[in-house]
User: Fold these one by one.
Assistant:
Number 1:
Amino acid sequence: MTARPRWGNVVLILLVVATAFPFYWAIVASFTPEARLFQSPSLLPRNPVLDHYRALFSQRDFWVPIRNSLIVAGTTTAFCVAVGGVCAYALARLRFRGKAPLLGLILAVSVFPQISVVSPLYLVLRRLHLINTYPGLILPYLTFAMPLTVWLLVGFFRQLPAELEEAAMVDGASRLRTMREIIWPLALPGLAATAILTFVYSWNEFLFALSFTLGPERQTVPVAIALFRGQYQVPWGQILAAAVVATAPVALLVLTFQRRIVQGLTAGAVKG
Amino acid sequence: MSRGTPTAEGREARLAWGLAAPAVGTILLVALFPLGWTFWESLHQHDLRMPWLGRPFIGAGNYLEALQDDRFRDALGHTLLFAAVTVTLELTLGCLLALAMNRAFRGRAVVRAAVLVPWAIPTVVSALLWRFMFEGRAGIMNALLVDLGAVAEPPVWFIHPMLAWVPVVLADVWKTTPFVALLLLAGLQNIDASVYEAARIDGASRWRQFIHVTLPLLKPAILVALIFRTLDAFRVFDLIYVMTGGGPGTATEPIALYSFNALLQNLRFGYGSALSMIVFGVTFALALGYIRFLGAGLTEARP
Amino acid sequence: MASVRLERVDKVYPNGHAAARALDIEIRDGEFMVLVGPSGCGKSTALRMIAGLETPTAGRVLIGERDVTALGPQDRDIAMVFQSYALYPHMTVHQNLAFGLRMRGASREAITERVGAVARPLGLDAVLDRKPSQLSGGQRQRVALGRAMVRDPQVFLFDEPLSNLDAKLRVETRAELARLHRRLAATIVYVTHDQEEALTLGSRVTVMRDGRVEQVGPPMEVYRRPASIFVGGFVGSPAMNFLDGEMAAGRWTGPASLALPLGPVPAASLPASVTLGVRPYDILIVASGQGDMPALVDVVEPRGNEALVHARLGPEGSGPEVRIVTPPEPLPPVDTVVGLRLDRDRLHWFDTVTGRRIGP
């Protein structure tokens, strides 16, 4: 395209600065001793210290919430991609009555506010003695993760040319064989994008994790950070250090897979 | 009656249901059933602090109480205000952003990735980052304001019922504008460049091109972004819980948080369920309304 | 090899659209049958029903006298070449060719042998390790062809395989296909919207419209004796000219006072409105005042070895337009009046109302 006016560049620069600044500030603060946190802030750390990070991992055992988040988000993602994937294939490719209402149902469920299902889930989990356990988080997570996965994968499967499957069937492959040999390899990019998105949403989830866990042994990262309590005051240094630790892997994931993620976000949405 | 060939189609249908059943079953179990339960509960009076009162059926009693509950009406107002302001800001900024990103330049991928990071982090973290920047008298925001001479005395944001909204809105906009921008960018990239060329030949200035070519063709993407963001804004919980706790007092409390407090703090399960059903109802009505508009918008905007 | 039959087949979609209505199509063992018609006529649907990719809402599909209506494509022993070729993008050419054999449980040695036997005559043995994205359009087409051939099926189905090729490649590939048919002695069902392809390739042609068969027969018969106005207008390029007229006292009167005898048609069975059909090649331009009727020359398109003349009937050109093909020289000047002589042996008569052919 022909040269655009420079306002575009200005906007971009402002944008990147505005995006990066809170992170930058948090990183700076996480290396600043507690006492100096609210005195004359400066853009560059004067005497960086590692106190907060040390405290994070020794005193507060921050590995535990990280482990919990990994297990919960990982299991949710794996389960939803597998189960939701075959469901999405059926919805995208196979002909059967009830397809439209089913799609509508899935779309509707993805709109459910979490607050509307939190109390019955709490009671059921309590009855099943699953409060403060891994299954006790994974099961509720399916509420939003499953519709999300199905929805995204339907979009991806629809983009695969139908003639490939027809060719495979004419060649003698059964439906299941076609799924395995033709669809699955070609759908891998879509599956990857969906897995990443589902993982990110699960990792970031807060309300259910807050409501269904009781203590640090099973709390996930967002809950652990939110509930940091100091003895006398809010331990901002540690909080921000934890924020940095919580953000770094996600940031890396995003930076590496940004193209896949964008694909996933926009595939279903705009092209419908 | 035409019989066709029942076996081939029947087989396909059976396979389809077989494949779909686990996912559908899961959804029914963890989403629909609890929703139904919440609805049922909302029709009862159920206060866990006063178990001797039992759990009588009171029909719409909780809902009537909600309508007269000042705190609820305030919460609804907060939510509406929050939704209106954030969605407007996010759409506008997102549009600007999408336009700026809609050309090939070196490092576009990096910019796109960098811009995506706020969207990807937990809302909790975003809330804390922004809280920190506005905290106290010597937080970075206050320092900037004082240095720029905008204010004489650095305000204490989180004590003031109106000012507390500022960091909240900023945090939300910061976190979700990238998502809106991406949706709009995808929409922009779907617009055929030759339409712009035709407009230029017809003598349209850049501004007019934007109004008469870009905006109408972007309508489907805008509507999609509008739906998602409005629905999310109405369900807002994490951000406010962590940033202000709904405070000062209940000045920043949205309906989802009020429902949460009613349920898990005040242990008024019946009433809290009614509140959360109202959240659901509003959200659902919005979604339906948008879908009707979205359907119309899509068929209009197709060139 | 086998015969193929669609017996009184209906295909009605849930939204009410009927792609096929009481369709009867018969393809003989070993023949090259072309299904041709405009888009939406149901030819692709018919092909897909033969393949098993669509199921009829009524009627039967028979392959080699076996009722396969209830069988999926996997069990019908057919092969199909898709319009977009549908090559498996993540597999090499060799794997693409081998896929069908693998699905049927052939041994690895048998597969390699068979793939080699097919790849060589198609000129593909140099590219066996490449993926489809690394091939040219012509090569991809040949891989699609090879994939069908390697399975040695009872019937070959082609769904507009040439439409993605440029004109030159199309002509070359057409010859290839004709050679293929001769060599394999296979039963081929071929779908196209291009009437020229239909005429050059088919041993028989089925012209379809709106889910029904308009005419079946060898290409020359469909060309020389179209069974309806539709077939006459669809087959042959430039298209046939049609002039509506009335019967009176055993003579036909058309526009611009054109009057003609009908020839060997029993006068008793004639309808009141009759349409004359005459091809552009069967009209001769003669001097003004001579011939069967005058016409005003409107547009002249020189085309190398011939010219296409558009003229309007009548001394002032107030009548309908006809197209005439003439030798390249001399060209009749535009806006002059000329005479048109119609070849009496090449006139086609149709009932204006039903569109059906009248007479032999």
Number 2:
Amino acid sequence: MADFPLIYERSKPGRRGAQPPAVRDFDLAAALGEENLRAEAPRLPEVSELDLVRHYTQLAHRQFSIDANFYPLGSCTMKYNPKVNEEAAKLFSDLHPYQAPETAQGALQLMHELQQDLCAITGMDAFSLQPAAGAHGELAGVLMIRAYHEARGEGDQRRVVIVPDSAHGTNPATAAMAGYEVVEVPTGPSGEVDLDAYKAAMGPNVAAVMLTNPSTLGLFERNIVELARVAHEAGALLYYDGANLNAILGRVRPGDMGFDVVHLNLHKTFTTPHGGGGPGTGPVGVKAHLAEFLPVPVIEKRGEEYVAVDDRPRSVGRMRSHFGNFGNLVRAYTYIRALGAEGLRQVSGYAVLNANYLRVKVKELGFRVPFDRINMHEFVAQPPEGLRTLDVAKALLDHGMHPMTVYFPLTVKEAMMIEPTETESLETLDAYVEALGQVLERAAADPAYLKGAPYTTPVRRLDEVKAARQPVLRYEFEAAD
Amino acid sequence: MRTPDDLRYAESHEWARKDDDGTVVVGITDFAQDQLGDVVFVELPEVGRKVAKGDTVAVIESVKTASDIYAPVSGEVVAVNSALESRPETVNESPYEDGWLFGIAPSDPAEYDQLLDAKAYAATLDEE
Amino acid sequence: MHYHPHTPDDERRALAAIGVGSIDELFADLPAELRDPQLDLPAGMDEEALLDHLRALAAKNGARGPDFLGGGVRRHFIPSVTPHLALQSEFVTAYTPYQPEVSQGILQATFEYQTMMCELTGLDVSNASMYDGASATAEAALLAVRQTGRDRVVVSRGVHPETRAVIETYLRPLGVRIDVAELSPLTTAALGIGDDVAGVIVQQPNFLGYLEEMRRLTDEAHAAGALMIAVVDPLSLALLAPPGAYCADVAVGDGQTLGNPPAFGGPTFGFMVVRQDLLRQFPGRIVGQTTDVDGKRAFVLTLQAREQHIRRSKAKSNICTNHQLTALMATINVAALGPEGLRQVAAGSVERAHALASRLAEAGYEPLTSGRFFAEFVLPVARPAAEVRSALAARGVHAGVPVPAEYGLGDAVLLSATERVKDEDISALIAALDAVGARRAEVARG
């Protein structure tokens, strides 16, 4: 069967799609200068509108999605994306960021209220909605920590950021980007941060500790109050990676646990769509003693007017252009207002219920569960001895389900991390367990079968080595001719 | 798992061989290439670079990982295996011969003798 | 409102399987003294009330009218077919394509995007998109620092002020010095740089709308051993000489004008396209072509060993997500328009902007037209710019992005035009400018 065509391969010279407004007679060369004009036209596809529609509709059919498939990806919180959020976002999509602010009061009010809602949910005192992704929020947070220590004259002294060895890769990468040296502390046998190693690493040279709670293993750090106390006593700040907030909504707040800085992932906990890889949104929240360092602009309410304030002399600066991923702020705001406090509390309750239900069922099948106690919204498992996580994951694809997160966290060999989220029914979870059971049976009867999976997907296992050794990163016009 | 007797080793899975002209040639062991999987890219140092023992001198990438390669001795980089640019898989196929990475003119001859011999290195593998 | 499906029966069954008596028991690990806080939030709403609430907020935003707003964000023609295709739920609700066998839709569309960006910019390798033009430019500055080992960058004042602010946020923690190359008066003067500069950053067209001499500036940068980072409007590349033509090393910018609505500034996407030999220093996700076990062509995220999930503290950047959906919207829009349609949108904007400048001149205004401009230019005004913008808005005309004081042009606004501007819109703008007293008696010569 022939390869699925690229849009370039459907192209035919002279084909036209959409028609913009006609251009009047005008001497472009005179206006722009002949020397500034392109000599050669860019090679872009020429397709009719129907061909365009066929191409991108068929491409969509070569794609898993939450709307069609179960996606129990640990640490990703692939919950249902409500459609009412899309209707809400449409109401604001035509606003220009530079239109007179008195004509954007509804948008500014929404942002101000969202700032306050996020404070209420997390127990923090102030928020910036600007960062465009979780990692971006992390960078803002770590830069604020840096500014805080510099303002107190301890910037040069505190050059170290501590992260657990189970941390998501963005944590050490962010710390390095902010100019810090990263020190990793081990996870103990209970799956929690090794308290003794943590205390040994703590000192007056430490700027911050970056933690998530529950941890990336899906376990609640039971020593969190002590971890916070030890850090604060040494003059270090505590940073909360909000990736796992879904587990604790309405149950406990990072601010109350002692965190000084928090970033949230609106595309995880607050249902803004993943979009196949982005855009995410990563607002960052702080306690009062860090508020002056927040990225600008911050939305304030002055009397009856909402104002975007840039003039904050101690701010770490701008993280990106304009206000942030405003369209996603509308979606998250809509979700929070739909659920209210009670609804958010139910989110964590059912997320943790679903995860533990799956944990028990998956263990019954014969998977190893290294931390076999009450987990939070996700849990780590390993395949039975002799089976590789990669092969189990690929075999699941043939059952129409997206595999769990594989090979993360790095501290567990052959890790599988499973997070069902609260929006899945027990029937879906049972079907998942059923599928896993069939994979194990197949593996026992015919070991080679798993190594060849998947069989029914649009393409099968890819040669990723070739892709890296001989990178082809764009369509090769010359090869096609 | 091959561990040739006539080479020296570091715990971080580099091997070293002292050539007749005194150059210390360095590569990664059979164990290391097996752990890494298919090598897709090798980032080699510039000839002329001065390195201290323990410095990260090269990086070997597979599809899913990247491994830092440390200088087993101090000195100056005098040779790099540029054939690896077009054929990184040579590291997997021939880790001790054609898959060599770089050569160092050592500044302290004693450091070479401090490296593990084949038996001691093989013992560390048993512990893994 | 809620989205969990559990009935009381489901809850009972699940609790029994787990072996606990209630959901609360599942939270026993939480410190007792911190448990179950009261969240100060309004009560939840059903869908009808929710949309009423959102509509009421939306109603507090100004109505549409003749539009001349620019400053890097513009409302161009976007055919209906573009959002129809881009917002299919398989594209919207998919995850990052880490399992390529079931992600060929996203991966192939990204490969098509990467190809288009290479064609538009004339450079060799594009990544899969970044957050926005400003942060992409900051990442390009960091790339130049890594590549050259030098610790100074030179940025033209013609680069958007917000972009310059973001560059500073990113570079300050690493001790990299940023120097500003001045405009004289509307375009970048000679750089006068030494061999301690890692990169030179120039915007084309610049923030004020005028065309820079990119070839001369690139030659100057290269003579000093620095990289040239061109910050470009991707739509303008349908007409203007691309970065590859003047041998720039990196092309970055914001993709909004290629096919996303203004959305109050976000989400948008940033792009970065580089020369082949910068591939290893390149941040962000990249999609590559390969084959599967049956020999079928397939696409996959590749060269991941540069990224944070593998290299951690030694990654080229901490960047994790890209801005896939908005980049997809642009990809589909460019394919919908085709090269001729894209050219028309660009040319139409240039024509309308020049028509606007002419009619303003005829009406006794003095737009700064001594420099060549693309589809935006500076108009000196008689009152503070922010006041002019507000006064125009009160008359239903959206125009007048203020020119910041740092440009030394006095009270002035940016006026932008797209292909959608009608003659009567221009009449309305001029009438409104007259009515708000914007015309200067004495004008600055540009």
